[in-house]
Amino acid sequence: MKSNFHLEASKKNQEYHIHLHGVFDGASAFELIEIIRDGEEQGLTMFIDTSRLKEVLPFGQTILNTHLPRNEIRAKLNFKGVWAGDILPAGCNLLSGHHEKGHKCTGNCKNCRCRQDKTENSIKFTN
User: Fold this and answer.
1) Contact 98, 84 (CB under 8 A)
2) Alpha-carbon distance 77 to 45, whole Å?
3) Burial class of residue 32 (count of CB atoms within 10 Å of its CB; 0-12, 13-18, 19+)
4) What are the structural domains of the chain?
5) By CB atoms within 10 Å of each CB, which of 7, 67, 88, 114 scores lowest?
6) Cα angle vertex 121, ends 46, 77, to 5°?
7) What 3-state class would DSSP assign to 47?
8) What is the separation, in whole angstroms, between the first and last Cα of the chain?
9) Contact at 8 Å (CB) between 83 and 56?
């Protein structure tokens, strides 16, 4: 079975930058949790970019929120991007200037930071 998800992680000084790609589901959440634990062991502040996700399944968010340790690690997690509000675990940070939970960007928002990403990827959502 071909995976519809992958992540890229890079360390810069005391920051860990994690870019999520594809479809975020339960298995993706467990993969992200493992990367977060690696960053935690190194004492890094983490930035999780969701702008390259195509879809977020509710089960993925549930797994992430349930299995992510409820300690000071959550205060070091900073989510950004179009889908950040959809996967944001309780106690984590949604970076300012990004959309709030429940917002589905069409790329037409005033001063939208994700406009460029949506246009470049040509993602179209249909009912």
Assistant:
1) yes
2) 7
3) buried
4) 5-97+104-121 (3.30.750.24)
5) 67
6) 10
7) strand
8) 26
9) yes
